[in-house]
Amino acid sequence: MTLNQTLFAILNAGVPASAVGLDIGYLAAVFLIFSLPAKLMIDWLWGNSRDRGAAMAVVTAILLALGINLLISTGVQIPRPHEAGIGHSYLAHAADSSFPSDHATVLFAAAWAYAFAERAASAWLFAVTGLMVGWARIYLGVHYPLDIFGGALSGLTGAMLSRGLMVLAGTRLLAFAEACYRRLFSMLIRAGWVRA
Question: Which residue, among 163, 38, 33, has the nearest Cα to 102 in the 3D structure?
Answer without folding.
Answer: 33
